Amino acid sequence: MTAPSSENPRHNAAAATHCEPCQSLDTLKPREARYIECVLGDNPELKRRLYALGFVPGAKITTLRVAPLGDPMQVRVGGSSVSIRRREASAIQLQPAQTG
């Protein structure tokens, strides 16, 4: 999978560290689904890893389960089930829930 296009100003290098306020993945409850808005942070290695796993803007993500102490959490993204740390999940910003 490829990283988000730099043509979209909300997802260019500057915007990726200053994304509009969104709900982060670590706050999503089990069985809730949203679409990824952007990935925050200044760690390029982590961003590359998350993009390679399918955590890209526009991808649908569903929380499957959360460990008893809250870490790690298992999510479904792009047809794959992935376990990630809560710290990593906090960098993944989600689009607001659609109402109606």
UniProtKB/TrEMBL annotation:
Pfam family, one: FeoA
Source organism phylogeny: Bacteria, Pseudomonadati, Pseudomonadota, Gammaproteobacteria, OMG group
Name of the molecule in the record: Ferrous iron transporter FeoA-like domain-containing protein
Lineage: superkingdom: Bacteria
Keywords: Iron
Keyword presence, Nucleus: no
Position of the signal peptide: none
GO molecular function: transition metal ion binding
PANTHER family linked: FE(2+) TRANSPORT PROTEIN A
Residues in Ferrous iron transporter FeoA-like domain copies: 23-96
